[in-house]
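Re-running the complex after MR caught last week's input typo. The corrected sequence lines follow. Everything else is unchanged.
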Amino acid sequence: MVPAPNYLILAAILFCMGMFGVLVRRNALVVFMCIELMLNAANLTFLAFARMRGDLHGHVSAFFIIAVAAAEAAIGLAIVIAVFRSRGTVDIGDIRTLKH
Amino acid sequence: MTGQELLFWVFAVSTVGAAGGVIAARSPITSAMSLVATFFFLAGIYVLLWAHTIAVLQVLVYAGAIMVLFLFVIMLLSLTEAGLKGPRLSLSRIVGGAAAVGLLAVLVASIRQLPGDQPMAMMGPAQASTFGSLHELGKLLYGTYLLPFEAVSLLLLVAIVGAVVVAKPRI
Amino acid sequence: MQGLNQLSERIQHFFMTSPFDPQGLSGSLWLIIALPLLGAATCGLFGRWLGRANVHLVACGSVLGSLLISVMVFWAVNDRSTAVLSSHGMDAFPYALASDHGTWFAAGAFTARFGLLVDHLSGTMLLVITGVGFLIHVYSTEYMSHDPAYARYFAYLNLFVAMMLTLVMADNLVLTFVGWEGVGLCSYLLIGFWYTDAAKAWAGRKAFVANRVGDFAFIIGACLLSLWVWSFTVQAQEGNFNGPGRNERYRRGVAQLGPLNYHGLETTARLLAPAPGVQKVDLRAEINEGPLRGWTYGGALTAVLLLFLLGAAGKSAQLPLFVWLPDAMAGPTPVSALIHAATMVTAGVYLFARLGSLLVLSPLAMVTVSLVGAATALLAAVIAFGQDDIKKVLAYSTVSQLGFMFMGVGMGVFWAAILHLVTHAFFKACLFLGAGSVMHGNADETDIKKLGGLRGQMPWTWITFAVATAAITGVIPLSGFFSKDAILDGIRGTELLHYEWAPRLVWVVGLLAAFCTAFYMSRLYLLVFEGERSREAKAPQARESGTAITFPLLLLASLSVIALVYALPLMNGMSGREPVMQNFLSPVFIHARRLGVQAGSFAAPHVETLGGLVAAWLLALAIAWGGFGLAYWIYRVVVPREKAPALPLWARRVQSLVRHKLYVDELYDAVLIRPVKFGSFVLYRVVDSLLIDRVAVRGTAWVTYQVGSIIRYIQTGDAQSYAAVMAAAVLAAVAYAFYNYP
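Corrected-run output:
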């Protein structure tokens, strides 16, 4: 039997790696991918706890997370395309018109 | 070490490695393929957790649809390796990196506080055989969580329309 | 002797039966104040449209109306059947009329009512104010006939009369204070009447500021007095009251009428006076609670009276606040006559006469009041020696005579002080109006060195001025002699226990001041009217003034003579024969005198023997003639000689010192005014300009601007830096949760 905390620690590692990627990488697409990584880490946590509790409510949450992640990815990529069309770059460091 | 544990360690290390590939790769295409690999390994771990339906959905939707979308966009934007700059060192990046590492430390510490031999829930053979099956998941989805289910379908509609609207060159 | 007795009986009976119904009159007391007030409003608001003649009519008419009603009230008050019921548990007060017009304000346990009271004291003041006021209004019609601002003048004059009437008719200290401040305001308005001249306007301001200092002391004294009365109502024991139920009636009276009602104060004084063998709260008892805790009743009362002394000193131009009165001569002469001779400046004396029952309970306060009066009398008399302006001499003379009145009040001879107040009003007003007439006929010349020889050229003015001068110096058979002598006699006969030296000292200073008075007034008279016309005179020939000026002069001069009747010992009093005025005012002051004896402040007055009386009269006459003789010798014999000897150096130094008013104004300027001005300058520059404007207001704006310009660098527009901050915050929150909720 795999002890339950292992799954949780794995999820924590994935989550923090994803967060690290979001904060450090300059390419917008890579940042998006790291966000998906974080979402998956959350999924893993939900499923681990569902297994620990013995009911399927965690699975339902994971299902919804997948659905929402799909929607978000669709719109996010559309935004990236729109930004690329107007700016010519997907480098996050170069997109700062809100700068004072 | 039982088979389960062995499988877990294999899948876990692979997942972490692939995730490292995602965040460290220079080319976005490499990141994307690493992410696909991560999803597959994660699906394996889900199966270990008896979450069969979710594992299948992960492969179908995540690896099959979302990543394809990512690859389409990458190819559409024609991002070549040349001209991509590596991460520059700046204050916000240092802070962000440190925060992420710190968060990991705290989370691990808090998880370790759980009793080490926390057993998984004991289930009878009848429940154990249907745990994580589509049938059981469907019962919950169409029962208790009917409203969120319908709301998610609406959300997907909005997402489709929104994606089309945002990406069009001219409305 | 039999015929004299019968005559005095008949006169008494005539004057003491009033043909008017007293109760009906008591409802009309407010008219006395209302008429001049209405006149003031009319002249002030509509004077321009009414025209000069109508304004004169309205102004003089309203004061005449007040005068008539005052006469009726005065007559009614003489009737034995006129009495005012006391609501403080004591017996009714005879010879008084009162009317109450409702509550003015009530705050907690303090009440102030619009109450009017006329007894013999206020009745006398009423006649003086309205009578002399009316004469001066008539005088002003001619004196100010060339002035274009006549409407404003008569409005202010009427307003002043109304305020002064409020002061004397009020039955509590609060309403008196309304009149007190009102006359101060009118004094300022009238002194600075020709305000386009900066010096005159400044003189008005000086008068107001000096009055204000006194008013401040008055307010504090009144507040302390109410606290004193309250402490007593809380602490009074049964031994204080003689009779059942009086305790309740007293407390109810204080609650209903307020602690500052004059009858209430008199009753409180009576209840507090120590009585041998009775266990009660008296002057030596300590106050138990409230802000006055720890003081004795006697000590607190002395403090209150000293504060009132400061207030009266401001209004009546005593030491140390007399500096405004000589400068007040910048106003029109009728104003000086009315306000600064006859009425406003007597308000301080009136106040102490009203508070007589309280004054006699504190020997220390009595001594202080008399010493202040004595010092002022002497100081002002000395300063008057060296003045060359005719009005300034009269101003200092007023200050000196007020000092006499304060001496009288301080030593407990209230009736003599009031008598001197009345006679002084007559002859001082006559003197001022005469000075005005002199100025009117000599192209406004005020320097007496440049006048002279007016005896033949202005006969009416001369004769009235001479009579008034004789009255003030105290020559028989004029009234001033009797009133001044009454004061000095009363002082000499007073024995203040614990302060035996005080009456002697005050008496000697009073004699000295009387001598000085004779001297400088004779000097004034001789230099203006006798001798030859000065070569430096402005107009070649002096004109005698018209009837509107000379008639009041004549009337006032005659009154100066007639008023001597009040001082003659014609009435049957408690201890043998006593003067008319003393008998007349005894319903008001008899309780104060008895209280003083009972409280152990002074011994019972002894009966004056005929020999002692004659000796006193001879001494007074000697002083008066001595002063006159000295002045005559110096100014008519020594000075006009061709080869007049030069004054020795010390005499010239003294003369210069006296001419400069002993440098009192300069002293005040250096000690008080300059530091205050410097303090104001510091506050303006340092506190206001620098600290508040620069540092606090603009500094705050500057700091905000700087902080803002630093913080704006957070707005990088870079999403990742925002995310970094969010990550750090999440870390902090998770760490906090982890460490606090294991």
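None of the earlier attempt is carried over here. Chain A touches chain C at residues 19, 22-23, 92-93, 95-100 (CB under 8 Å). Residues 57-87 of chain A form the longest helix (31 residues).
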